[in-house]
UniProtKB/TrEMBL annotation:
Taxonomic lineage of the native organism: Bacteria, Bacillati, Actinomycetota, Actinomycetes, Propionibacteriales
Task of the protein: PPIases accelerate the folding of proteins. It catalyzes the cis-trans isomerization of proline imidic peptide bonds in oligopeptides.
Organism (species): Nocardioides nanhaiensis
EC numbers on record: 5.2.1.8
Alphabetical UniProt keywords: Isomerase, Rotamase, Signal
GO molecular function terms attached to this record: isomerase activity
Protein name from the UniProt record: Peptidyl-prolyl cis-trans isomerase
Pfam family name, one: Pro_isomerase
Superkingdom in the source lineage: Bacteria
Amino acid sequence: MLRRPRPALTLLPALALALSLTACGDDGAASGGGEGSGSDAVESTAVGTPFSESGAAAGTASCSYESDGQEPAREVDPPPSTAQFSGEVPGVVVTNRGDLRLTLDADNAPCTVSSFTSLADQGYFDDTPCHRLTGGGSLSVLQCGDPLGEGFGGPGYQFDDELTGSETYPAGTLAMANAGPGTNGSQFFMVYADSQLPPAYTVFGTLDDDAVATLEEIADAGSTPEGDGAPNTDVEILGVSTE
């Protein structure tokens, strides 16, 4: 089922170039600012240990995951209402282009980390394409997390931002895409070069230097349309787990 784009959250990078970094809603075509395209199928592989069996001790933050009124791209259960981790949680996004090792920040984004790990445990991200690449300059990201591969898909729930108002987005940042305040779902982005974004996107982790180098190689191949579109190098997430 195609999903209608929600209102786009406009970004204003350098030179007043208006771009958008949004997750989309129900019934319709993706907007130019949404995520966009599928990729060749890649066989799934079992990866590592589920997040629920490792990482830091459970936190105490209260989390609310409410229905977004949309049909889930994949059927999943919502996360628990209490954050499941605190501290740093190491993990890996296994892709057909190599392992992207990351560290989740459960102290500063406990509800986001709980959602991400819950979706990972349930196989939500398995065999899904990264569907949007923005090309350099003030907005340099690879966006993933939609099983539909077109920028319309979400888990059927949404949750609040976890922001301080001082967020920055240097290379190696792992952050949530959204369609406005309080609309986080499953779509996320990975920053491969320092990006100028307003502090409107929840930062919930970082990627290591090797992961950034892999993202740079993907970015070097460009996108279609050039500058903001489907990556020319297909990127398929095989699984997400802890080490």
